[in-house]
Amino acid sequence: MKIETLSCVVKGKNDVDVVTQHIDYDESSRDQTLVQITRGGICGSDLHYYQHGKVGNFEVKHPMILGHEVIGKVVKTNDPKLYAGQKVAINPSKPCLKCKYCLSGETNQCETMRFFGSAMYNPHVDGGFTQYKVVDNAQCIDYPQEASDDVMAFAEPLAVTIHAAKQAGDLTGRKVFISGVGPIGCLVVASVKALGAAEIVCADMSRRCLDLALKMGADKALHALNDDFSAYAEHKGYFDVSFEVSGHPSSLERCLAITKARGTLIQVGMGGAIPEFNMMMLIAKEISWKGSFRFIEEFNTSVEWLSTGKVNPLPLLSKVFGFRQLEDALKAAANKDETAKVQLSFE
Questions:
Q1: Which domains does the chain have, with CATH numbers?
Q2: pTM score, two decimals?
Q3: What is the structure's pLDDT at 278?
Q4: Which cofactors is this protein said to need (predicted)?
Q5: 8, 231, 263, 269: which has the fewest C-beta neighbours closer than 10 Å?
Q6: What are the helix (H) ranges across the chain?
Q7: Are the CB atoms for 106 and 296 separated by under 8 Å?
């Protein structure tokens, strides 16, 4: 079965287009499902591919479909757990299920992970910003029909933050600091609150972001430059757990200073090399510094939390564009002074 689909592709730096493509779906397949994409959220990696033609060292070498935060409706499937018209969130991870990490259940560390919208391989792995997509049955996570597209399109980024929150262990009754509250930082706020944090303090350079963090459940929001953090650094630190979500060296330094001795620091923000790093503070305070990357079973948890209302991400939704307005949507998403999360509608 051949299907015509309109896809949002990036061809290089500042070069995106909506093009007609054709995909094949084997109607006898027991393993794959044809999905009509309904909504997609624009992520930082989509912006990097648009603005720079690459993410890190992974450069766009031929047109690639963007997007990994997508939901849709089942069109055709032979999976008995799915049916035509069913709403599903699409898990953008496709691990090999054969390497040592997959076999131990650590699928986010898969050695040959094929993740939606990635130029890591050549040919690239196409993303989900397209009208129709063939996916593995296991990538389709169903949710109630009445659930809002606005809400459910947050499934992937919320999964990232639930995974990050769980890296810190039991958060019940803990004092938590979150440095950098863009969309991911704000979803960290929601995740740690849902997991029982007793006190949540945030820092950012943007007053708009800080206001959003308060709406997402933070108890206190401090300006990263103008407010005084010295009291939190007394007695070797105040917070049980800190989440560094900006990737900036000064943010990491603050987290080290105000995380208590033998506390935990979760690194979520991505950045380059750190030119000056206070290793002695990390050592002397015996801080556990842990990275957090994507998610595993937390994608299913995210779908459940969103569909049941345990987390409400809507304060973060700034605007929804039709997918044919791809470049306008990307430019809006890049304007951090005015927008948090921008979504594309494919209906």
A1: 2-154+313-345 (3.90.180.10), 161-291 (3.40.50.720)
A2: 0.97
A3: 83
A4: Zn(2+)
A5: 231
A6: 44-52, 100-103, 149-152, 155-166, 183-194, 207-215, 230-233, 249-258, 279-284, 298-308, 326-334
A7: yes
